[in-house]
Amino acid sequence: MTEDRGPGDGGRPRDVVILGSTGSIGTQAIDVVTRAPDRFRVVGIAAGGRDVALLARQAVRLGVEVVAVPHEWTASELRQALSVERGRGNGSRARLPKVLAGRDAIAEVAAWPCDVVLNGVTGAAGLASTLSALDAGRTLALANKESLIIGGPLVKERARPGQIVPVDSEHSALAQCLRGGRAAEVSRLVLTASGGPFRGWRRDRLAAVTPAQAMAHPTWTMGPVITVNSATMVNKGLEVIEAHLLFDIDYDAIDVVVHPQSVVHSMVEFTDGSTLAQASPPDMRLPIALGLAWPDRVPGAAAAVDWSGTQIWQFEPFDEETFPAVGLARHVGRTGGTAPAAYNAANEECVAAFLAGRLSFPGIVETVAKVVAEHDGVAQACSTLDEVLAVDSWARLRARELTGAAAATSATR
Ligand SMILES: NC(=O)C1=CN([C@@H]2O[C@H](COP(=O)(O)OP(=O)(O)OC[C@H]3O[C@@H](n4cnc5c(N)ncnc54)[C@H](OP(=O)(O)O)[C@@H]3O)[C@@H](O)[C@H]2O)C=CC1
Ligand SMILES: CC(=O)[C@@H](O)[C@H](O)COP(=O)(O)O
Ligand SMILES: [Mn+2]
């Protein structure tokens, strides 16, 4: 594996594995790679198995070597769907791909021989694959921020310098602003936040928020969990921890600023008062392409800012009082060890409860705060995957107990 392979220097296409291929990041990644066949070849894909027909279609059309699902019970359905897809005349490979299914299947694909693994799985479920890709020596294009955040030191100690390339738009922006620079010259990182659908709202209005309102992100079309996380600002909290872990910058020197247009994806302020920003219309295909081709740019990956029209870029202070999720994330980030895993797992449970109508919108972060407070006294260093997973399970259970209790109380009112 070399960093400079690509059509520009006459190399072969990069072999890519896409985890979470049926999701928002995964489908956009497939769009990126299929538009640049001279640069990329997809050799493996994986998904949760909720849309086996789509997964099979992707596998046959891309001609992958391997396709994986995490549950044994979807394997036969997947094999059948692959045969149907080939019967339709899609794809060119004579042989159908190998099917892997079960608990370790996704991590096995993450270690498949290739140049770069894009982890586009959602949530803590992506951690084993992140570790597997790193241990196998693959470059890891990381959209699944949760794995870095909950794995923390565990992930960092397995990664050699430059092995993780951020795909999250803010962190891709920061990496672009930082490249070629000197660490001692960096003063602050400034993460931009769209503000979500409830920007400018007061806290008392949030009690009546419905899932449909929370799912209406003003600038990005994304999967359900990250979309709700953007509405609660948990996403920005996770991103503060992600920035700390990726760039080794103190929490005190990471700011959040609201930028409703989502064109400036983040900024780096330098010691001489200069600020560099990365700007492009909101389109994840740009950071995905850069993550797959790093350090090269992929020409035409996304549209640039259109300067023929008026551009208005607003920046506003972030409302810490209405959205306590960022402050809480700073707290768990500073606590370190297993604390971020408790924050994330409780949040994943609460988002599911909110989307199922079992928890109010403010109840999400209120419950996460309760779980974090309970975990504070027992936070431990996270030195093994099992330790992280144990805290993840405990926090999910506590969140379920707390939200179950909340639902029962409101039902008896
Ligand atoms: N969407 C975006 O624009 C951005 C996303 N991100 C991050 O990227 C990640 C993916 O987000 P997004 O694409 O929006 O999410 P989606 O919900 O749209 O997609 C998630 C993908 O992961 C798969 N998946 C879920 N659970 C498992 C599992 N246990 N094993 C294997 N695959 C699984 C899903 O398959 P199935 O549906 O079958 O379960 C699906 O393919 C998240 O970490 C998110 O925070 C970061 C920045 C921007
Ligand atoms: C596209 C991306 O990177 C998301 O994480 C996005 O930043 C979410 O928007 P918010 O700024 O509203 O959280
Ligand atoms: Mn982001």
UniProtKB/TrEMBL annotation:
<feature type="binding site">
    <location>
        <position position="239"/>
    </location>
    <ligand>
        <name>1-deoxy-D-xylulose 5-phosphate</name>
    </ligand>
</feature>
<feature type="binding site">
    <location>
        <position position="48"/>
    </location>
    <ligand>
        <name>NADPH</name>
    </ligand>
</feature>
<feature type="binding site">
    <location>
        <position position="235"/>
    </location>
    <ligand>
        <name>1-deoxy-D-xylulose 5-phosphate</name>
    </ligand>
</feature>
<feature type="binding site">
    <location>
        <position position="144"/>
    </location>
    <ligand>
        <name>NADPH</name>
    </ligand>
</feature>
<dbReference type="Pfam" id="PF08436">
    <property type="entry name" value="DXP_redisom_C"/>
</dbReference>
<feature type="domain" description="1-deoxy-D-xylulose 5-phosphate reductoisomerase C-terminal">
    <location>
        <begin position="164"/>
        <end position="247"/>
    </location>
</feature>
<dbReference type="Pfam" id="PF13288">
    <property type="entry name" value="DXPR_C"/>
</dbReference>
<dbReference type="InterPro" id="IPR003821">
    <property type="entry name" value="DXP_reductoisomerase"/>
</dbReference>
<feature type="binding site">
    <location>
        <position position="236"/>
    </location>
    <ligand>
        <name>1-deoxy-D-xylulose 5-phosphate</name>
    </ligand>
</feature>
<dbReference type="GO" id="GO:0030145">
    <property type="term" value="F:manganese ion binding"/>
</dbReference>
<dbReference type="GO" id="GO:0030604">
    <property type="term" value="F:1-deoxy-D-xylulose-5-phosphate reductoisomerase activity"/>
</dbReference>
<dbReference type="GO" id="GO:0051484">
    <property type="term" value="P:isopentenyl diphosphate biosynthetic process, methylerythritol 4-phosphate pathway involved in terpenoid biosynthetic process"/>
</dbReference>
<keyword id="KW-0414">Isoprene biosynthesis</keyword>
<feature type="binding site">
    <location>
        <position position="239"/>
    </location>
    <ligand>
        <name>Mn(2+)</name>
    </ligand>
</feature>
<dbReference type="InterPro" id="IPR036291">
    <property type="entry name" value="NAD(P)-bd_dom_sf"/>
</dbReference>
<dbReference type="Pfam" id="PF02670">
    <property type="entry name" value="DXP_reductoisom"/>
</dbReference>
<feature type="binding site">
    <location>
        <position position="194"/>
    </location>
    <ligand>
        <name>1-deoxy-D-xylulose 5-phosphate</name>
    </ligand>
</feature>
<dbReference type="InterPro" id="IPR036169">
    <property type="entry name" value="DXPR_C_sf"/>
</dbReference>
<comment type="function">
    <text>Catalyzes the NADPH-dependent rearrangement and reduction of 1-deoxy-D-xylulose-5-phosphate (DXP) to 2-C-methyl-D-erythritol 4-phosphate (MEP).</text>
</comment>
<feature type="domain" description="DXP reductoisomerase C-terminal">
    <location>
        <begin position="280"/>
        <end position="396"/>
    </location>
</feature>
<dbReference type="InterPro" id="IPR013644">
    <property type="entry name" value="DXP_reductoisomerase_C"/>
</dbReference>
<comment type="similarity">
    <text>Belongs to the DXR family.</text>
</comment>
<keyword id="KW-0464">Manganese</keyword>
<feature type="binding site">
    <location>
        <position position="145"/>
    </location>
    <ligand>
        <name>1-deoxy-D-xylulose 5-phosphate</name>
    </ligand>
</feature>
<feature type="binding site">
    <location>
        <position position="22"/>
    </location>
    <ligand>
        <name>NADPH</name>
    </ligand>
</feature>
<feature type="binding site">
    <location>
        <position position="170"/>
    </location>
    <ligand>
        <name>1-deoxy-D-xylulose 5-phosphate</name>
    </ligand>
</feature>
<keyword id="KW-0479">Metal-binding</keyword>
<keyword id="KW-0460">Magnesium</keyword>
<dbReference type="InterPro" id="IPR013512">
    <property type="entry name" value="DXP_reductoisomerase_N"/>
</dbReference>
<dbReference type="GO" id="GO:0070402">
    <property type="term" value="F:NADPH binding"/>
</dbReference>
<feature type="binding site">
    <location>
        <position position="146"/>
    </location>
    <ligand>
        <name>NADPH</name>
    </ligand>
</feature>
<feature type="binding site">
    <location>
        <position position="24"/>
    </location>
    <ligand>
        <name>NADPH</name>
    </ligand>
</feature>
<feature type="binding site">
    <location>
        <position position="230"/>
    </location>
    <ligand>
        <name>1-deoxy-D-xylulose 5-phosphate</name>
    </ligand>
</feature>
<feature type="binding site">
    <location>
        <position position="169"/>
    </location>
    <ligand>
        <name>1-deoxy-D-xylulose 5-phosphate</name>
    </ligand>
</feature>
<feature type="binding site">
    <location>
        <position position="170"/>
    </location>
    <ligand>
        <name>Mn(2+)</name>
    </ligand>
</feature>
<feature type="binding site">
    <location>
        <position position="25"/>
    </location>
    <ligand>
        <name>NADPH</name>
    </ligand>
</feature>
<keyword id="KW-0560">Oxidoreductase</keyword>
<feature type="binding site">
    <location>
        <position position="217"/>
    </location>
    <ligand>
        <name>1-deoxy-D-xylulose 5-phosphate</name>
    </ligand>
</feature>
<keyword id="KW-0521">NADP</keyword>
<feature type="binding site">
    <location>
        <position position="223"/>
    </location>
    <ligand>
        <name>NADPH</name>
    </ligand>
</feature>
<comment type="pathway">
    <text>Isoprenoid biosynthesis; isopentenyl diphosphate biosynthesis via DXP pathway; isopentenyl diphosphate from 1-deoxy-D-xylulose 5-phosphate: step 1/6.</text>
</comment>
<protein>
    <recommendedName>
        <fullName>1-deoxy-D-xylulose 5-phosphate reductoisomerase</fullName>
        <ecNumber>1.1.1.267</ecNumber>
    </recommendedName>
</protein>
